[in-house]
Design a protein that fits this description.
It is a single chain. By secondary structure, the chain is of the alpha+beta class. It contains nine helices and four strands; from the N terminus they run H-H-E-H-H-E-H-H-H-E-H-E-H. Strands 1-2-4-3 form a four-stranded antiparallel β-sheet, sandwiched between helices. Helix 2 (25-36) packs across helix 7 and helix 5 runs antiparallel to helix 6 (110-121).
């Protein structure tokens, strides 16, 4: 069987973590690199990825996460916070990075920069914020797949209160919004859900060819 499929079969939304096991610095570096390499619209990466390790902070976040134990038991808690009100400043920063990385002049990409700014400015602000939030799901997917490769467990979560997360983590002042949360670590032997068969639609119900 293809190793990617084997890893996908192995992973599940872990319900109970072993709080004594911590992810190594080397594996964390791999996970961060995987997130960094995620695709994003225009390549803008319109989000910040916060690894919450501080136990006091995580204890504060647990009630804002419907009391879920993974928030405090997992090795790390990853918060994907999308940028709000994305505009010219973020685009300018992207192109500054681009010309430095590729060793070209701004003149070579000015037309594309102008096109990008004009295109994004046309998007209503509320829709733009939804758009940047959606980008975090792509990054989350890369994190989960890379973690499965390393036999690190993950629990993606939408079951939390973004407003409370924003307050606790000081995101409002940074023009950020908590869009997604993912606990990462190692499954506890007592987590019986790891033995459950996956429930998925049949191929005939899920796929169609036109």
């Amino acid at each position: 069987m293809n190793s990617f499929i084997e890893n996908a079969q192995w992973r599940y939304a872990t319900k109970k973590y072993d709080p004594t096991r911590k992810i190594s610095a080397a594996d964390l570096a791999v996970l961060k690199e995987a997130i960094s390499l995620s695709a994003s619209s225009y390549g803008l990466q319109p989000y910040k990825v916060i690894f919450v390790e501080n136990p006091e902070l995580r204890a504060q976040l647990q009630p804002a996460s419907w009391g879920q134990s993974q928030i405090v038991e997992a090795s790390h808690l990853v918060v994907f916070a999308n940028e709000l009100n994305l505009g010219d400043a973020q685009i300018d920063a992207y192109f500054e990075n681009l010309i430095q990385t590729r060793g070209i002049s701004m003149e070579n990409v000015q037309g594309y920069a102008d096109f990008m700014k004009a295109s994004i400015q046309k998007i209503p602000l509320e829709v733009r914020n939804v758009w940047t939030a959606k980008q975090t799901y792509i990054a989350l997917s890369n994190l989960m797949n890379a973690a499965a490769e390393l036999k690190i467990d993950t629990t993606p979560m939408e079951g939390f209160e973004p407003k409370l997360y924003n307050e606790i983590l000081g995101l409002n002042e940074r023009n950020l919004n908590a869009a997604l949360v993912c606990a990462i670590g190692y499954r506890h032997p007592d987590d019986t859900t790891q033995h459950y068969a996956k429930v998925r639609k049949s191929e005939s119900n899920l796929f169609e060819s036109l």
